[in-house]
Design brief:
mainly alpha; five-stranded mixed beta sheet
Amino acid sequence: MRKYPRAYSRWQLVTSEHGSMATGRWGEVTGARPRSADAGTSPRGLFPFLTPALTEPFATLSPGAHEGNDRKKHFGKNSPLCRPRPTALERPGLFRGPLLAAVGLGPPCPGGSRALLEPPSSLRPRTAGSGVTRAAEAAQQPASQTPERPGRRKRKSAWKNDACKPDIMMSIRQRKEIKTTDVSEDFPAQEENVKLENKLPSGRTNRRLWTILSFTIGGTIALCIGLLTSVYLATLHENDLWFSNIKEVEREISFRTECGLYYSYYKQMLQAPTLMQGFHGLIYDNKTESMRTINLLQRMNIYQEVFLSVLYRVLPIQKYLEPVYFYIYTLFGLQAIYVTALYITSWLLSGTWLSGLLAALWYVTNRIDTTRVEFTIPLRENWALPFFAIQIAAITYFLRPNLQPLSERLTLLAIFISTFLFSLTWQFNQFMMLMQALVLFILDSLDMLPAAKATWLYGIQITSLLLVCVLQFFNSMILGSLLISFNLSVLIARKLQKILNLKSDEHIFKFLKAKFGLGATSDSTNQQSMDKMGKCTVNLKPETAYNLIHTILFGFLALSTMRMKYLWTSHMCVFASFGLCSPEIWGLLLKSVRLCNPKRICIMRYSVPILILLYLCYKFWPGMMDELSELREFYDPDTVELMNWINSNTPRKAVFAGSMQLLAGVKLCTGRTLTNHPHYEDNSLRERTKAVYQIYAKRSPEEVHALLRSFGTDYVILEDSICYERRHRRGCRLRDLLDIANGHMMDGPGENDPDLKPADHPRFCEEIKRNLPPYVAHFTRVFQNKTFHVYKLSRNK
């Protein structure tokens, strides 16, 4: 290697005084090779044979070298710095790249892309303050660290990283011509340049545009799929009953069991002369239960019927829309909100609206197990579940970390409103919310949920339930609910734990959290085994863990109560679609087969749901079209005949007894007074119903007459479908249950319990049709058809 120790040392003498203006210290001289990579930042330090033309920007840093620009006087006549300058192309291959980059013709600096797009400083017009700006940037650069073995490759990389340094030195030379007062004036121009650069298209801008586009498309699909589901269910209802063509009495009869009871209060509010009289009739009702005056707003969740009746009377739609259509269209519209909320929940969990589309499509294709709104429209669950789905979607978003304060407040408001409406519209709300409280308690105990957020959710549940309790005139069922007791206990325990600073059992929950792959803990002694197990687990986010435990608990609830399967299956659609679109789940699966990389995860999380969507469309679309094309008509002539006879041949104050399901229709179609009804949550009503149902037991006519007259009964309706029931097996029929309750042996072949005895009298519903004198003395048949038998009770005892 060629060595020029004298020239190199003179260079070092020249630059040592002013070198810190550009990059700090440039290193010490040890022969011809710099000791550190810092020395490599000077092109003269690496290549002492370079000509003065290339080293002029560095040499001018010395006042002595700047006077007259006489290099021979300063360096000496025989200095190699005075030799003729070779061109860049005459240099060896090792140096050609750095030299071309130094003059703006080579590859750009690895640290930025401006070197390739802009000419050198000596060729481009200079903006005000540019020299100061670059000098300030250069002064802020940290000194590089000394490599262990500097060599040829290191020097080459140093040239690559500092290929734009001569341009910086030229900028520094301009400092002599700029005054200090001008520097402060040039900073606005610098800020304008920065603003202009920020306005240029970049990766962040592209991501933002893509996010906005994805949100727009996903939101539009959510609204469309919700509306299509609503129209689909409404069309099924119309095609099944031909609802638009049947008579009004047939429409009302189609609201079976408790559905007819709830709709009757909507009809009662519309028929009231004024709203105040309508409210008075609901608060002091003496037609729903004979010989009693009850507060319907306290006993039942019928505020939705009250609200709809007020809305129908206020809005100018009476000429265009019938009351029954306003009612059912409202329910079908809520189903659109329900599906949209499920869609959003799945979208929030997975991060892609494709998951929401899959959840909504699963909900529709599994309609038999997800909803029954098309044939039980006024049921309380059809009112409440849409608000419950909104609440779960809001809680899912609320459990995300690092929310903005405004977003957090708006989310809490959405949670409160949806929780309040859910509690107001369904009498079983407290059991669903108790499940939620258990989920929150589990997450809070495992430290997967911030304590402040858990406290907010506990408080919202208690506040909503207490407000509903006030609106329902302090319903005892709400005041004695397990939910209020549980939440108050948790909040009190949390407060005591905070006051007493109790943390002794904290390590137990940390261990459980690490054991099940929900997080790591340093308190466990077998940390290495936990780390090994963590490679095969997924770190659950709070919102994911919340929905997972929610779905599991709802599954157990569905196993215990058939009605609750409609709640569980809808959430299963949400969580299953999330699992198919979750990058964490696919990462775990691919990692188990050692094929995990981000590209494969992205392909799987999008391709598999798309294939399933295509398969669902191929599999279920023909069946759905056939279902929509199938036209049926409501036909129940026996019930229609019964209702018409009651309206025409009985007094308006007459009291009717019979089965709960039938009497709800009697109240809706005729407005007559009832002895019992399907709202079975009151204990005294259950005892009354048991007494009325003795008409299907083995009792004497005198006993049945006395029981019915104790409730003020004028007419009793007997149904052959109950008296001769064959749908259920022995022991599950209504008459069998009554026999067991009365201590009588059941009819038909089969075993009986040893404590059951033969009855002293035949079955009442069968024997009364024989018109025997004991029965005729107390009961007179006044109506009969193939299904119903109506008897009028005598008033003599």
